[in-house]
Amino acid sequence: MDTNHALRCAFEEARLRAPALSPCRLAARLGVSEGALQAARLGHGVRGLRMTPCDLVMLLPRLGRVSAVTHGEHAELVSHDVQLAHNGYLPEQRRVTPVRRPDLLMRWFLPNWYWACLIDDDYGGGAMHSLQIFDRTGRSVHRLVIADIDNRGWRQLEAATDARPPAFVQTIDAVTETPPDVETLRAEWRGLGSREDAERLLRRYRLSRLTANRLLAGHGAERLSVDAFVAVLERPLRRRVTLELEGCTHVQSGWMTPWSARGDPSLVLGGGQLRLTIDTTALSEAWCVTRPGADGRLETGFEAFDGQGRLVASVG
Cα angle vertex 67, ends 252, 28, to 5°? Predict the structure, then answer.
């Protein structure tokens, strides 16, 4: 039995025995990337696409209303009833902003897009059609669930399908941070005028969010217990949620109320057109951070990280 056949069998078995288990979590249990799991299903509910990232972006508004799904290993943010557009394209950065609304912002960084596929699944007798994009290592960058496939955009995607499998590579974590003198960083942080200034500062020093928080402890960042972070989220409030991946930034604002059943390790928050799911068992460190907001005023947010120091979610 070859590897692809074994992965397909595992996928089908999981669908029968644990239909709520996401492909992302199934792939993690199998020790492969989510992209590798879906690529193993080529010809069995999955069709690859032979399109450049730019061509794909130009076609997406023709798909009509979609649900935009961004998920990392431990968190997922879903925005329903989204109409994509062509606004905000920066060709010199190959970065596109397909949605820019007061309550929703999405940015895609096209150089991180490697393989895209169409997925046709059947959940409890109901068909679900989606477009999913992966990076070079097989990590999901973004997924769009199509509300109605009877449109020109979907037909154009179907006409561009390709049976050739992708060649994913393994990721290698490299330490590239160059932390500055602590007092210098704190002084520069106090002088920031916008959220974009904060992002540029971290890029200039090649600092992760977690390292920056630790250096700023007591001067713009305060460490919280994981329980305190979860308790903050469990209070029904209007919030601003951010999920950041290598190729995508997804920001959604709205009224959020906890939906989780008692004893469920996954915290599910939702309301209106959004849903946020966080695996609280994966959280290792949490911080309360004060930084400049969009208009230069200070704003406070809460950030949670996993055991490898990766940002799981940022909530304001």
Answer: 90
Backbone angles phi, psi at 111, to 5 degrees: -60, -20
Sheet strands (E) in the chain: 46-49, 65-71, 75-83, 95-101, 104-109, 115-123, 126-134, 140-146, 161-162, 221-224, 237-244, 248-258, 266-271, 274-279, 283-292, 298-306, 311-315
Tens-digit pLDDT profile for residues 69-117:
988 888 888 999 999 987 655 555 567 888 888 888 888 888 889 999 9
Q: Write down the pLDDT at residue 229.
A: 92
Instruction: Report yes or no: 267 and 278 within 8 Å, Cβ to Cβ.
Output: yes
**Is the model's pLDDT at 217 over the cut of 80?**
yes
User: To 5 degrees, how large is the angle CA 201–CA 202–CA 207?
Assistant: 145
For residue 141, what are the contacts with CB-CB under 8 A and spacing of at least 6? 108, 112, 113, 133, 134, 135, 245, 246, 247, 248
For residue 132, the model assigns a pLDDT of 96
* Mean of per-residue pLDDT scores for the chain: 86
The phi, psi pair for 220, rounded to 5°, reads 115, -10
Residue 154's Cβ-side half-sphere holds a number of Cα atoms within 13 Å equal to 18
CA separation for the pair 19, 100 (Å, rounded): 34
- The CA angle 98-168-311, to the nearest 5 degrees, is 55
Burial class of residue 219, CB neighbours in 10 A (0-12, 13-18, 19+)? middle
* 135 Cβ neighbours under 8 A, 6+ residues apart: 35, 112, 113, 114, 141, 246, 247
DSSP class of 42? B
**Chain-centre distance of CA 152, in angstroms?**
27
Burial class (CB in 10 A: 0-12, 13-18, 19+), 227: exposed
pLDDT digit string, tens, across residues 9-55: 999 999 889 887 889 889 989 999 999 999 999 999 999 999 999 88
Task: Report d(CA 95, CA 92) in Å as an integer.
Answer: 8
Tokens of 258: 């906890």
Helices (H), 46-140: 53-59
